[in-house]
Design brief:
The chain has helices at residues 14-20, 56-69, 98-109, 142-159, 173-183, 204-210, 232-244, 258-267, 278-289, 295-309, 319-330, and strands spanning 30-37, 43-44, 52-54, 73-79, 114-119, 163-166, 190-197, 248-252, 272-275, 313-315. With 349 residues, it is of the alpha/beta class. It has a single domain, classed as TIM Barrel (Alpha-Beta Barrel), CATH 3.20.20.70. Strands 1-4-5-6-7-8-9-10 form an 8-stranded parallel β-barrel, surrounded by 7 helices. It starts with 13 loop residues before the first helix and ends in a 19-residue tail after the last helix. The relative contact order is 0.13.
Amino acid sequence: MNLPVRLRRLRQSSAIRRLVRETQVTPADLIQPLFVHDASENAPIASLPGVVRHTVDSLLVVCRELAELGIPGVAIFPVILPERKDSLGSHGLAEDNLLYHIVRRVKAEVPELAIITDVALDPYTNHGHDGVLTEDGSQVANDETVKLLCRLAVNEARAGADIVAPSDMMDGRVAAIRAALDAEGFTNTMILSYAAKFASAYYGPFRDAVGSKVGKGAISKASYQMDPANAREAIREVLLDEAEGADVVMVKPAGAYLDVIRSVREATRLPVAAYQVSGEYAQIHAAAQLGWLDYESTRDEALLAIKRSGADMILTYFAKEVAEEKMRKAKGEKSKTLRGSASCCPGLG
């Protein structure tokens, strides 16, 4: 055949494939979500294999390890005792809030690690919603919730958070939080906005982890989180948050919303984050345990797709193990992962 263009020339050897590779996922692209609880022992999370609710001491050890692996940041989520929850999420503003304690400890002992804290009330409310309810209990009250979120964000910044991350999806909260932070002198505290957060079925294991699940079924957050059907509306949300002063915008979930990540990347010059959420992590584990998918290859391909779609940074429960594997490869050691074969998606090599 007389073919002047043969694209297989670009794929003929490992060396050439590495030379022409368009997308790479490195530890510097990853953020590790971590759960912490006020207990004396770590507690495994059944729906998130390999993930635990850390004690304070255990979380500090993991943070040091992450920094040594080249992971630049962690997102810390507190698990609050049920007796400390109420309808207003009052414990979120209490001085003895576990989150403030752990942020101060991490910032003091691992100062090079960027700390991201969630700005939402669902860990603290007894109804599981991200804000306070209207008098009849039918809706989350937007403006009243925003006032509390501003106080929460300021407290998190005062404890040492580098980045506050409003995940509540209330209207106008980014502008209000920016004004509150600036008024208290926290002009350098960044806002990572969960700008396009969808009312997704993929959040179940996370709600198990933080204990925000109420009753037997999932509560509906559709009146404030986005309709999964709406991609154009996601751009409106992102551009509003950019105008209100967000430093980074996020799409959540990631895997089922790669088209949204791409559209957001094209619509803004801000850094774009994507959250590979608990359900995405859990389904890869479940399929691999059943022998239906190769664990490492599927994990790495999923992360590569998120980066390729336009994400600058990825929150993922896989962050630590991916960074450990990269370090082992750099040392010429074999993979220690037992859940799949040693083959790995080349984009993470």
